[in-house]
Amino acid sequence: MKQEPRTQFKTWRSSRDPAWIHQQSARISAHALGLPIVNQAQRVGIYLSTGREVETDTILQALQRRGAAVAVPFFRPDGYELSWLEDRGELTLGPFGIREPVEPHLADPADLDLIFVPGLAFDDDGYRLGYGGGHFDRLLSRTEAVRIGLCFDGQRTHTLPREPHDMPMHLLITESGVREITGDTAAHPRPEGDPS
Q1: What is the pLDDT of residues 4-63, one digit of tens each?
Q2: Angle of helix 18-33 relative to helix 57-65, nearest 10 degrees?
Q3: Which residue, 1, 66, 93, 113, shows the most beta carbons closer than 10 Å to its own?
Q4: Angle in degrees, CA 10, 131, 35, rounded to 5
């Protein structure tokens, strides 16, 4: 059910020029870093971009400069976990060619304030199309953190196939700006003290 759109969006993304990816990623990073919820978060999960994903290094470095604790995925035989990333922590390539800490320091997803999420595509209700391994879905199921999807406008679509375990994003950021997901699919956490 998900294989056809997965192939479609992989093809679209692989056709993008690396310079275009870099330019649009810079715009996406600027939108993300302009959000109060990002600037106030103390414990942030973020993926280390690879290939033609939205690049996350600018966001990661800005978070570290202001003293936020940053957690990134790393591979274990039973699936991905999160590791706190030291300011000058050394990185290596994991088994799928994704950067990860050389010496992981296990982080509990439940401790995060927000998490930046990759995807091949996202739909109007905030649901994502992943790469098929379910790794990020399992991490998301273990946290109440605000979920922020990062993608290019060309990875947006009206609707995607869904499964019961799929979790929608609270916010979606593309080069065009920030979209807050409304409705029952992604109830956005209320600020403390908000009586509504």
Answers
A1: 888 889 899 989 999 999 999 999 999 999 999 999 999 999 999 998 999 999 999 999
A2: 30
A3: 113
A4: 90
Query: CA 16 to CA 72: how far, in whole Å?
Result: 25
Assign 17 to helix, strand or coil.
coil
Hey, is 52 helix, strand or coil? coil
Residue 101 contacts residue 90 (beta carbons within 8 Å): yes
DSSP string for 86-127: -TT--EEE-TTS-EEESS--EE-GGG-SEEEE--SEEETTS-
How far is Cα of residue 89 from the mean position of the Cα atoms in its chain? 20
Q: Give phi and psi for 19, each to the nearest 5.
A: -65, -35
Q: Indicate the pTM of the whole model.
A: 0.88
Q: What are phi and psi of 46, to 5 degrees?
A: -150, 140
DSSP for 145-192, written as a single string: SEEEEE--GGGEES-----TT----SEEEETTEEEE--STTS-PPPPT
Could you give all domains of the chain from N- to C-terminal order, each with its CATH number? 3-8+17-98+107-166 (3.40.50.10420)
Q: Which helix (H) or strand (E) holds 51?
A: none
Cross-strand pairs, 101: 91
**What would the two tokens of residue 98 be?**
């994704």
Nearest 5°: phi and psi at 76? -125, 160
Q: Which two tokens stand for residue 119?
A: 């995807």
Residue 168 in tokens: 């929608």
